[in-house]
What does this fold into?
Amino acid sequence: MKIKTCFLLLLLVGGFSFAQTLEQLKVATKKIHEANYNMDFDSITKFSYPKIVTHYGKDKFLEKLDHDYQNETYRMRIQLENVVFEYGSIRLIDGVNFSVVSFKNPARYFYENKLDSNTSLIQANFLREKDRTRDVTFEPKRNSFNVRRTSKLVGVADASTQNQWRFFNMDDPEQRALFDSIFNENIKNQLGL
It folds into this structure.
């Protein structure tokens, strides 16, 4: 009887911990998306995996974020404030919690200089590769591109984050490369990346 009671108690505690972790993941995901939507670079820094910020240095990372959103070539804006997140299962691998979060995340790129048919084609190809999507539409009257993409965040909770969810933005090629250098191929395979 004691064994059954202990087993039931263990299941309840484990289920509660998982539910609590999923709720924490949902809250953190919403906060990093809101920070990206509002171009709140300090909050993006706070919710990014710490080794990303360390890799650049905080000031350089903030500069990079600002440059990603607005530079001498274009201004990029995320179009949807409220999105539907699809959460992959939370996986404990080598003592680290991971979850892949996907969501539709269209963006618009407003170009500073007028694009002609030739330069718009070059920029469309650039955006297809950069945002890993084929759905890029040039709007000549607005001198902008509408980019429909599915974004992925990889949530990580480990000792370096005090077991709080922090993220890699897999839309960013440099963050993808950093993820690959920190975590081994086995982890990427288990996460389906």
Q: What stands out?
A: The chain is about 50% helix and 25% strand. Residues 2-37 form the longest helix (36 residues). The two ends are 45 Å apart (CA to CA).
